[in-house]
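User: Hello! I'm new to structural biology and keep hearing that structure can be predicted from sequence alone. Could you demonstrate with ROK family transcriptional regulator? Please show me the input and the output so I can see what each looks like.

Assistant: Of course. The first part below is the input, the amino acid sequence of ROK family transcriptional regulator. The second part is the output, the predicted structure written as tokens.
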Amino acid sequence: MLTDLVAALDIGGTKIAAALVDDRGRVHTRAQRPTPAHEDGDTVMRAVTEVVAQLTVSPLWSSVRAVGIGSAGPVDAVAGTVSPVNVPGWRRYPLVERVASATGGLPVELIGDGVAITAAEHWQGAARGHDNALCMVVSTGVGGGLVLGGRLHPGPTGNAGHIGHISVDLDGDPCPCGARGCVERIASGPNIARRALEGGWRPGADGDASAEAVAVAARAGDPVALASYRRAAQALAAGIAATATLVEIDIAVIGGGVANAGEVLFAPLRRSLRDYAALSFVQRLTVTPAQMGADAGLVGAAAAALSRGAGAAAAGV
């Protein structure tokens, strides 16, 4: 019989995923909806309640003890609210209260999506065995989280390590967060595609203008596509090096859809990192792809929920 089951939610600008996860990180039941990111807040919440409802009809639901949420941020774990940059309908939205109501009053743990991915990669993935790590998701947005001294470091509100909103171009484009030249404004998938289009790249016959399509063009040698990925890699390298200099991480793990570009992203990233990580104590910093794949946010959110009780030791958080 399964014990220490938790419900996990992974909420981003593209999709809302949910699953039942056990204390070994195994996923047993799944549900998913597209995120209606440009609709009002209650419409977005309805998509969340729909995926939760799919979990509650599982015969395993009676074993669920808590809920973990990894959400696009910023989040406020103290207040239980979220204000995702890429979901404008949610500003100080009381997500914890609404999810608790939808799950019959189960305890809810909220962390940022980057922190959730960090928890997963440190528990079972590429950062396992590393005491000081930065893990990132580079997708519709750019998020991140930190492991310091062998433990997940979400910070007081659950946002520590949110590298996407470090400014790496002081006179750069305005970012929706209100700052300028943020890593996310340069390195996220939509901005890679936007920059390529502005530079003259054109989609193929299928009309696909995504970052994935730009990566395909870059592999084929398209100079504009390659330049857009080089610029993204440079921004990521600057942010990673700044983080390493500040807290002495020894590994940076990168996941998310943009990381699926492979060496189109990682080769220029490693070259740029040599330029930015110049001090002696960060020169051994390594960059590696994430290992947890599409389940990283769910497994990390589950780890956060497990950490509330008996599952903490198992989850290693």
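User: So the tokens describe the shape?

Assistant: Right, they're a compact way of writing down the 3D structure. Reading them back into a model, for example: The radius of gyration is 19 Å.
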